[in-house]
């Protein structure tokens, strides 16, 4: 669907937005990708949302992408006799394998992998970092710690071990069941939580078997340490700033966001910036000025998409959140693309040369006829500021193109013959006019890309006028 902006919006579905009417309203106001959060809901509720999305897509004739976000390996403490206890800074506190209910001095930690990996001097963070404990002693049954801050610890709170690579499978039994379900329903993207290394993606890809693209969620320090190899292995990344800001000092997150975006663009991988973008709109009809600046900053840095989480899933103002995010993106792009000039290398690639040609001839769009997600991502990652018309004969790729910056996706039963330039150019012109992207007198730059799903090669380009 051709919108008046190029950065995409991902919105999470939940109790506030799970209905056919609401999904249609959100899509028409700006949502490009719907996220299904498998930390919540049931397979039945997710299936209902998938069916509503696909039915809407058919009725409008426009692509809508679906992202299934897996819960991942959650580490939690056990339960307490009194549901919660007060911990004082400086006191001794023990985490152990004993299943007995906890008290003010200890609690169960039913994760043997933590005992195997933790070291003296490590920090354990509980309840999104609200409580911190320094490890003083560890064996295979017990971790003795000193509380670094005072606070309340209660039943089943989450636990983080930020400085340590944990030897855990990327897919839990729940994740495997959710993944198999999502793939059976033909979702377009699978988001993997708590990725630590490229091998996590390799393992998940074996189970997915090419049926969906993988989005690696970057939310652990180990993922940042292994960023280059993760980018080579994955199809895209999500900067999950919530958990990343728990496991790292919060002041480190903004420069990391910039670094990740820069590296992902260099590897031609799409990026979703996520978490607390319009957090106050869960309960307020307008965002804070800081939140507006946060969304705009992501646009200035060239993200492919920004994401709404609780704002659209369980908030009081899901419609308003989508509308204001759409307006923030539009206004930021008017600023950033007013004097856009994509820097070229000494020997420009075909995508770089196509963008330069588009600037010189004031072309309205760049068109790519291709079944390759990676090929179109190469053009998109250069953030040209010019809409990209991507024409494909693969229905899965048709949906997946929707996540990419600046890309308007169109499906054909059969691609035109690249050996017949006249047919090729005429078809592109007709489709671009039909989509409202050009008029008969506008210039169009056509990039000849591979029609193979597993190839990201280009063979040439031309101008249609």
Description:
The longest helix is centred in the last third of the chain and has 19 residues. It is built from 16 helices and 21 strands. It starts with 7 loop residues before the first strand and ends with a strand. With 465 residues, it is α/β, with parallel strands linked by helices. The chain folds into three domains: 228 residues, Phosphoenolpyruvate-binding domains (TIM Barrel); 77 residues, Beta Barrel (M1 Pyruvate Kinase, Domain 3); 115 residues, Pyruvate kinase, C-terminal domain (Pyruvate Kinase, Chain: A, domain 1, 3-Layer(aba) Sandwich), CATH 3.40.1380.20. Strands 1-2-3-12-13-14-15-16 form an eight-stranded parallel beta barrel, surrounded by six helices. Helix 1 runs parallel beside helix 12, helix 5 runs parallel beside helix 7 and helix 10 packs across helix 12. Strand 1, helix 1 and strand 2 form a beta-alpha-beta unit. It is elongated. The model has no long low-confidence stretch (mean pLDDT 92).
């Amino acid at each position: 669907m051709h919108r008046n902006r190029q950065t995409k919006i991902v919105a999470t579905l939940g109790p506030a937005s799970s209905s056919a009417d609401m999904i249609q309203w959100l899509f028409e106001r700006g949502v490009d990708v719907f996220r299904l959060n498998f930390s919540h809901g049931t397979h039945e509720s997710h299936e209902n949302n998938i069916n509503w999305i696909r039915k809407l897509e058919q009725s409008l004739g426009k692509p809508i992408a679906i992202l299934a976000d897996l819960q991942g390996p959650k580490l939690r403490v056990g339960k307490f006799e009194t549901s919660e206890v007060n911990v004082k800074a400086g006191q001794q506190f023990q985490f152990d394998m004993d299943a007995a209910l906890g008290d003010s001095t200890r609690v169960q930690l039913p994760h043997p992998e933590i005992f195997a990996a933790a070291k003296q001097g490590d920090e354990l963070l509980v309840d999104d970092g609200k409580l911190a404990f320094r490890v003083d002693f560890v064996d295979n049954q017990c971790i003795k710690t000193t509380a670094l801050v005072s606070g309340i610890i209660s039943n089943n709170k989450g636990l983080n071990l930020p400085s340590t690579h944990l030897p855990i499978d990327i897919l839990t039994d729940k994740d495997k069941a959710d993944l198999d379900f999502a793939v059976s329903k033909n979702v377009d993207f699978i988001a993997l939580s708590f990725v630590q290394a490229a091998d996590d993606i390799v393992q998940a890809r074996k189970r997915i078997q090419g049926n969906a693209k993988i989005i690696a969620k970057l939310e652990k320090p180990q993922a940042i340490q292994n960023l280059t190899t993760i980018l080579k292995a994955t199809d895209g990344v999500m900067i999950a700033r919530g958990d990343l800001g728990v496991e790292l000092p919060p002041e480190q997150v903004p420069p990391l966001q910039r670094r990740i975006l820069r590296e992902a663009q260099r590897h031609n991988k799409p990026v979703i910036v996520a978490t607390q973008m319009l957090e106050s709109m869960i309960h307020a009809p307008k965002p804070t000025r800081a939140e507006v600046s946060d969304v705009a900053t992501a646009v200035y840095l060239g993200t492919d998409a920004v994401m709404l989480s609780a704002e659209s899933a369980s908030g009081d103002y899901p419609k308003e959140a989508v509308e204001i995010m759409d307006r923030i993106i539009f206004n930021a792009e008017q600023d950033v693309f007013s004097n856009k000039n994509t820097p070229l290398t000494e020997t420009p690639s075909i995508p770089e040369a196509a963008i330069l040609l588009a600037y010189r001839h004031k072309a309205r769009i760049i068109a790519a006829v291709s079944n390759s997600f990676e090929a179109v991502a190469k053009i998109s990652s250069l953030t040209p500021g010019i809409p990209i018309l991507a024409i494909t004969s693969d229905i899965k790729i048709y949906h997946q193109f929707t996540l990419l910056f600046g890309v308007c996706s169109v499906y054909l039963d059969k691609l035109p013959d690249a050996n017949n330039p006249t047919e090729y150019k005429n078809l592109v012109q007709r489709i671009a006019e039909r989509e409202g992207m050009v008029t008969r007198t506008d210039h169009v730059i056509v990039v000849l890309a591979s029609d193979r799903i597993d190839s990201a090669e280009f063979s040439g380009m031309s101008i249609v006028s």
